[in-house]
Amino acid sequence: MQNRLKNDLGFRGWLSGGRYGLDRYAYTLHRLTGLGILAYFIMHIFVTGARLGGPRQWDRTMALLAQPIFKVGEFLVFLAFAFHAINGIRLVLVELGYMLGKPGLPAYPYSYSTMRQKPLLVAAMVIAAALMIIGGADFYFVLR
Amino acid sequence: MRESKLWFWHILSAIVILVLLGMHMGTMHLGAILSLIGIGSSDPVKSAEVFRRSQQLIYMVTYILLLGAALFHGLYGLRSMLLELSLSKGLEKAVGRVCAGAGVLLFIYGSYVAVMLVRMPEVRP
């Protein structure tokens, strides 16, 4: 126990991206949203299975899921999807080597790949936020 | 299967999901906005709409494709996170098998529902 490093940051250490900054928050959020979407997706498979019971069974299931708590949950899943999808596109592009620039000698002032792909990260976050706002309008403001 | 192959399928399934789930989310969650410009339905979960879509062969095929891609992508992602916990070799194998087994069972159930809906006599709510 004595060899363990002291956590000087305390609770902030859990939430802070530290010197990794925005990339680290995106990484953590990508994992969290992925787990949330997976949990929802498994439930969704069983909920949509209610179609086998015919229209009456389906309407009963939908009436149950029309309660405000489920609507809020569904909206949270939409937010998670918007973030995970747009950030996922960024990750695929970076994985395939796009938007990283050409590699060069490590000469001062240093340029590194995570810095070079920062505009892509910011653009992805802006697009995800726009998608969330449009989805929110659809969920809560447009008359159905 | 080698990890690099699994990783390749993880990326490929992400692209499949992006297209199919993008269409699904557009239909289900942007329906009210899209219906204002004459595309889609303002109430896509109404039983008439749901059964009209579910009983078409093209929807069945895309549902099953999306189901398979999403299950693989999600469960492979979960497995990757769990393997980062520095598990023993035996536990790593067990995690892989549980994820694969759960994926296969869910795929069989989801595909069964999709196929049975197409085989059902036409439903008119």
Task: Please give a structural write-up.
The complex is a heterodimer of chains A (144) and B (125). Chain A has 144 residues and is mainly α. Chain A has one domain (11-140): Fumarate reductase/succinate dehydrogenase, transmembrane subunit (3 helical TM bundles of succinate and fumarate reductases, Up-down Bundle), CATH 1.20.1300. Chain A contains six helices and no strands. Chain A has helices at residues 11-15, 22-48, 54-65, 68-95, 113-116, 118-140. The longest helix of chain A has 28 residues, at 68-95. Chain A is elongated. The mean pLDDT of chain A is 87. With 125 residues, chain B is mainly α. Chain B has a single domain (3-119), classed as 3 helical TM bundles of succinate and fumarate reductases, CATH 1.20.1300.10. Helix content of chain B is 79%, strand content 0%. Chain B has five helices and no strands. Chain B is elongated, with a radius of gyration of 18 Å. Chain A binds chain B through residues 31, 34-35, 37-38, 41-42, 45-46, 48-49, 51-52, 54-55, 58-59, 62, 78, 81, 85, 88-89, 92, 95, 134-135, 137-139, 142-144, and chain B through 11, 14-15, 18, 21-22, 25, 29-33, 36, 42-43, 45, 47-48, 50-51, 54, 67, 70-71, 74-75, 77-78, 81, 106, 109-110, 113, 116-117, 123, 125.
